[in-house]
Amino acid sequence: MANVATATRSIRNPVLAGFHPDPSILRLGDDYYLATSTFEWYPGVLVHHSRDLVNWRSLGGIITERRLLDLRGCGDSNGVWAPDLSYHDGQFHLVYSDVASFASGYWDPQNFLVSAEDITGPWSEPVKLHGRGFDASLFQDDDGTTWLLSMSADWRPGRDRFGGIEIQQYDLAARRLVGNPRILFTGSPAGLTEGPHLYRHDGWYWLITAEGGTSWEHQVTMARSRELFGPYQVDPDGPLLTSCGRPDLRLQKAGHGSLVRTQHGEWYLAHLVGRPYSPLGNCVLGRETAIQRVEWPSGCWPRVAGGVPADEVVAPNLPAHPWPPEPETDHFDAPELGRCWSTLRRPATADWVDLHTRPSYLRIHGGQSPVGRQSPSLVGRRVGAMECSLETVVEFEPADHRQLAGITAYYNTLNWHHLYLTRGDDGRTVLELLSSDNGRRTAYPELTVDADGVTRVGLRAVFDGPVVRFDYDLGTGWRRLPVELDATILSDEHAALIIDGEPAAWGFTGAFLGLWVQDLGAGDGVHADFDLATYREQ
């Protein structure tokens, strides 16, 4: 029964599996919302909804249009970083950072604010805020003033690039920043201070930050002050949460948290985690969202049991509220893409994503090559389990080798596996496999399959732990390509590249399974029709 409270229920982590990092949690009445980063993928800023902190459903994304964000040319793992969701005076407010770079000490961030009366929109025109740093958030003080916080970036060689947490007043009515910014907090010895959220509780201002970087040394730091502008004292007992130094834990990279208080005064912390495939190994699923219970007696510092992320925690004293399960198969009968789908670097507009011309089919018009950053044609969904698969049926008539359509296991422009239909030099339609490992492409000509004359081809990509496999069906039953591909190249750790101490590439997302159509003739007008897509987790 959806309305019966069960005291023994548990929150099982992660609550949002797969690529869902940097959670910002908000309660409004009986409703809880989680907003997460999306980087180079549309829709930007995914939002999930819960009534009990146990069961979550996707509401889709907030940033669905280029007027809110233009990701053309966006680099891998650039784009939307660390959104902040808040509510004040009848309006939801979303602050998000569009980060254009992270090379040579530069980030080129730009922060924006949009508002809406309903979580599903419509959202206002974006207010352009400052570009001095990223991970911006709003704080409404008890006196009615509103403040914008963010990390303060310092590009100067020899300086700490994470120059502290800054604060500046924001005028909600005038929709603009006022006054001058000032540094609020310079961080703990862990360093790399970012991801600020500010709370007023028990007569204190409580500042929560992410520190230690977003990998194995990640942590949630708490500091407090009697005055808004400080000074802020760091919790003398150490971080509120971290998995640093505990490679035995299932949940690693614990950090970047935000707090929420239930209707009955219970506190919980939403934060990111990673699940490596081996101790401190690659996290193919990317950075995920988990929730921990927080004990916070009056007059005391908040505490998470053991200061480490637990796989399972006691749920709040709220009525259980499960949601209907998402269907495994999308038959593409709806007028818009389902909420499980995302598109790479451009929104799912009718000029290339077509659900109307041929009812019950997804028609994808071909786009750029794998390294193209303006108009790729990739429709994907997050990999949410170590064992999972995506299966589809495609109809495609390639004219030459420049036209490709198929299924992919994808991380970024440099790391992917792709099984696709194309036309061979002899004029026959063939099924080929191509992989890219940090830009080094590997073809498998010995595995080429003759698919000439077959109008409907079944394709399946399978994640089996550290291995990716591909299957195909030409109408006579499923067959497996006899090759095992490396799934661990589709991970944050593999994508990161440091040259002379500087990040030449970074990895902040996670693996996708997707439908990919390329038109390397740049305007030949090729398209592929996908009849269905079935996603299963083992």
UniProtKB/TrEMBL annotation:
The record marks 135 as: Important for catalytic activity, responsible for pKa modulation of the active site Glu and correct orientation of both the proton donor and substrate. Residues 329-536 form the Beta-xylosidase C-terminal Concanavalin A-like domain. SUPFAM superfamilies: Arabinanase/levansucrase/invertase, Concanavalin A-like lectins/glucanases. Gene3D superfamilies: 2.60.120.200, Glycosyl hydrolase domain, family 43. GO terms for molecular function: hydrolase activity, hydrolyzing O-glycosyl compounds. The active site is at 22 (proton acceptor), 194 (proton donor). Keywords: Glycosidase, Hydrolase. Pfam families: GH43_C2, Glyco_hydro_43. InterPro entries: ConA-like_dom_sf (IPR013320), GH43_C2 (IPR041542), Glyco_hydro_43 (IPR006710), Glyco_hydro_beta-prop_sf (IPR023296), Glycosyl_Hydrlase_43 (IPR051795). PANTHER family: BETA-XYLOSIDASE, BETA-XYLOSIDASE-RELATED. Belongs to the glycosyl hydrolase 43 family. This is Glycoside hydrolase 43 family protein. It comes from Micromonospora inaquosa.
